[in-house]
Amino acid sequence: MASTAPPSIHHERPPLYRDVTVVKWVVQIVALLLTLGALWFLANQAGDNLKASNVPTDYDFLSVNPGIDLSSGIDTDPDTGGRALWVGMVNTLRMAIAGIFVATAIGVLVGLSRLSNNWLLRKLGTVFVETLRNVPLLVQILFYGAVFASLDRVSLDVGPVNGWFHLSNKGLSMPRVHIADGFYQWMIVIIIGLFAANFLRKRRIAEQDLSGEETYPILSAFGLVVVFGTLGWFIHPIFGFVGNIFDALSSAVSTVPEGVLQLLIAVLSIGLSAYWIRGFLNSRRTPAGLAKLTDDDYFRMIFAGIGGVLGAVFFLVLWPGLASWMINSASDLFEVLGNKFGDGRSGRPVDVALPDIVQVGKFPNYGPSGLNFSIGFAAVFFGVVFYTSAFIAEIVRGGILAVPKGQTEAAGALGLRRATALRRVIIPQAARIMLPPLGNQYLNLTKNTSLAIAVGYSDIVQVGQTVYNQTGKTLPVVSIWMFFYLSCSLSISVIVNFFNVRMRIVER
Q1: Model-level pTM?
Q2: Torsions phi, psi for 207 (to 5 deg)
Q3: Per residue, what are the HEC states of 380-440?
Q4: pLDDT digit string (tens) for 397-426?
Q5: Count of beta carbons in the 10 Å neighbourhood of residue 367
Q6: Domains, the chain, with CATH or none
Q7: Any residues with CB less than 8 A from the CB of 476 and at least 6 apart, and which?
C-alpha cells in the first residue's frame, strides 16, 4: 500500500487591518506623531498666549547688565545676567557637593554610633537623629542664621601671624590653601602613585586570600600614595616637559579643517548607531546563531538607525559651526594645560593665603586671600548637612541591620574581630541596600539648597529672583532654574545608578 503525502496546509495572509504586526507598527507610529503634534500645538498656543499677554519669554537678559551686586561668589559684580546666574550656579554646586560629602561622613559616624555597644554613643546618636530629622529644615536654617547673626567679633590669635581666624556676625575668615605653580606637575606623581597603590592593593588581597592572614591592603595602598605624594613634592619639576606636549597638541588641533571634523563626527554618529544595532542583534542571538527578534526589537533598531542619521545631518547641515567651536575650544584647552604644566611652573604645589586684614576686626569682603564663609552660606550649609545626615544615619543603621545575623556569627566563628567583620563582611553587603536611599538623600540635599533664599545667600534661586525682578523675565529665569536642578538631579542619579549596577549581586 503506497503511502500518501499529507495534505499541504495553505496559510492565507490576513488583511492588513487584521495583521498584528502591521497594526502594532501603525499604532506606535500614529501615537508618536500624535504626541509630537500635541506638544507642538501646546507650545505654540502657550507662546501665542504669553505674547498676547505681553509676558516676555526671550533670554536677551543673559547678555544685558542686570545692575545687581552679589553678596558672595566668584564674581560679586557680574556684568551680565548670564554671568550672575552662573555665579549662583557655582555657589549652589559648592554647597551641594561639599554638603553631600560632609553629610555622608557625619551620617555614617552617627549611624555606626547607634549600633555601638557603648550606651553613651547610642543615646547621643539617637538624640542627634530624632532631634534634627523632626525639625523642619527651613526652621533649622533660620535658627543657625539667627545664632551667627548674634555673634560679636571673635579673633583667634594663633600661629606665627596674629589673626589667622576671624568669626563675627559677618561671617568666618580663615587661611586658604590654594593651588600654586607646581600643583599640576605634582598631580602627575600622585596619579602614578594611585596606579601603583591599586596594583599593591590587588597583590595584598591575593596574598591574604592564599595565606588567610591580614595583609591590610587598603592601609598599604594609602601609605604608598602618601609616599608618592611626599616624594613628588620634591621631584615634580621634572615633569615640566608635559607642558610642551600640550602646546604641540594645541597647535595641531588648531590646524584641523572644519570639514574634516564635521565628516568625522557624522561618521562617528552613524558608526555608533551601527555598533549599538550590532550589539543588540548579538544579544538576541540563540546558541544556534539565529537572532530571535520581536516587532519591538525591530522598532528599537530602526529608531537607533534614524538617530545616527539625524546626528550626522545635525553636524553636517543644521549646525556646521559646531565643528569650529569644538576646534577652538579644544585648542584653547590644550593651550591652558600647556601653561599649567609649563617648565616655568616649578614652584611649590600648594600654598596658604592668610586673611587680608585692613584693620582690627575688618577685612575687605572677608579678604580675597583668605577662605571666607558668609553667614548665609554657613546657615544653609549647617542646616542641609545636619538635616540630611540624620536621615543618612538611619539609612546606614537600617542597611547594617538588614544583613542577616548569620553573617556576623559566621565572621565571629572565623575569628574575625568585630571591626574587621564590619569592614570586610557586613559593610560590603549593607552598601548594596544603602545605596538607592542614599541617592535619594543626595537628590534631596541638592534641591534643599534652594532654601538659601531664606537667609539671603546668593544661590541660583536668590540670584535668579533678583534678576527677574530687575528685568521682568520671570518665565525664562524659572525655566533656567528647572533645567539646572534637573541636570544636577539626573547627574546624581546617573552616578548612583552606575555604582548600584556595579555592586549588584549577579545570579548564576
Answers
A1: 0.69
A2: -65, -40
A3: HHHHHHHHHHHHHHHHHHHHHHHCCHHHHHHHHHCCCCHHHHHHHHHHHHHHHHHHHHHHH
A4: 999 888 888 887 787 787 777 777 777 788
A5: 19
A6: 62-153+164-173+373-503 (1.10.3720.10), 185-340 (no CATH)
A7: 56, 57, 58, 59, 61, 468
